[in-house]
């Protein structure tokens, strides 16, 4: 009986793993902050305007981190077509602020958030 139960659980587990991988997608873009990506502070989806003021640091990564840590933003993925994706793993994204990355994961039902499974520098 224990062997039969163990075999059944193995089959069920394998089925869930296989089903889970089927919807994963790959997204490419830049890790930025939600304010600059949605033009709250920026006209150009970039950090140019904020860096020119001299109050957000000296680099794009400084600006991203400042917007998140001091202004209540979140780390997002900005794709080449200016699409903004919220990211489920903020800690992983924080390590790659202002970097071009590839994110693998599952888009949410509303197509706004990526449930991340991996992130790497392009």
Structure keywords:
single chain; 122 residues; alpha+beta; 5 strands; 39% helix; elongated; disordered N terminus
Question: Could you please describe the fold and organization of this structure?
Answer:
- The chain has 122 residues and is an alpha+beta fold.
- The chain has one domain (24-121).
- Helix content is 39%, strand content 29%.
- The protein is built from 5 helices and 5 strands, in the order αβαααββαββ.
- The protein has helices at 2-21, 34-37, 48-53, 60-71, 90-94; strands at residues 25-33, 75-79, 84-87, 100-107, 113-121.
- Strands 1-2-3-5-4 form a 5-stranded mixed barrel.
- It is elongated.
- The chain starts with a helix and ends with a strand.
- The model is unreliable at 2-19 (pLDDT under 50).
Question: What's the helix and strand layout?
Answer:
Blueprint: H1 2-21, E1 25-33, H2 34-37, H3 48-53, H4 60-71, E2 75-79, E3 84-87, H5 90-94, E4 100-107, E5 113-121
Parallel strand pairs: 3-5
Antiparallel strand pairs: 1-2, 1-4, 2-3, 4-5
How would you briefly describe this protein structure?
With 122 residues, the chain is α+β, with helices and mostly antiparallel strands. 39% of the residues lie in helices and 29% in strands. The chain has one domain.
* Uncertain residue segments: 2-19
Biggest sheet, spatial arrangement of strands: 1-2-3-5-4
The main sheet comes to: 5 strands, mixed, barrel
Radius of gyration: 19 Å
Strand percent estimate: 25-35%
Helix content: 25-40%
Report the count of strand segments: 5
**Helix-strand makeup class:** alpha+beta
Any idea how many domains? 1
Q: How does the overall form come out from the CA principal axes?
A: elongated
N-to-C SSE series?
HEHHHEEHEE
Query: Separation of termini?
Result: 50 Å
Number of helices: 5
Question: pLDDT average, as an integer?
Answer: 82
């Amino acid at each position: 009986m224990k062997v039969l139960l163990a075999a059944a659980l193995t089959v069920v587990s394998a089925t869930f793993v296989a089903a889970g991988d089927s919807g994963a997608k790959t997204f490419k873009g830049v890790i930025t902050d939600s304010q600059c990506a949605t033009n709250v502070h920026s006209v150009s989806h970039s950090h140019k305007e904020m860096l020119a003021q001299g109050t957000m640091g000296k680099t794009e990564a400084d600006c991203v981190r400042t917007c998140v840590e001091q202004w209540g933003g979140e780390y997002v993925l900005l794709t080449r077509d200016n699409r903004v994706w919220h990211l489920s793993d903020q800690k992983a994204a924080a390590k790659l602020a202002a970097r071009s990355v590839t994110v693998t994961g599952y888009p949410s039902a509303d197509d706004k958030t990526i449930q991340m499974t991996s992130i790497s520098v392009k």
